[in-house]
Amino acid sequence: MQILPFQQPRQPLPLAGYWRLKAFNQRITLLVSQRATWVNMGLVLAVLAASTMSLGMGSVQLSPAEVWLALAGEGPAMHQLVVKELRLMRVLAGIGTGAAFALAGCLMQTLARNRLATPGIIGIDNAATAFAVASVVGVGSALAPPAMSLVGAITATALIFALAGSSGTQGYRFIVVGLGIGAIAGAGTQLILSWVAIDDANAAFPWTIGSLNARSPDAFKLLCAGLALGVFFAYRLAKGLNALRLSETVPTTLGFNIKRLRAASLVLAVFLTGLAVAVAGPVGMVALLGPEIARALCRHRGLPILASALAGALLMVLADLLGRIMLAPLEIPVGIVTAVVGSPYLLWMLLNPNFRSQP
Question: Hey, which CATH number is domain 92-316, 1.10.240.10, 1.20.1290.10, 3.40.228.10, 1.10.3470.10?
Answer without folding.
Answer: 1.10.3470.10
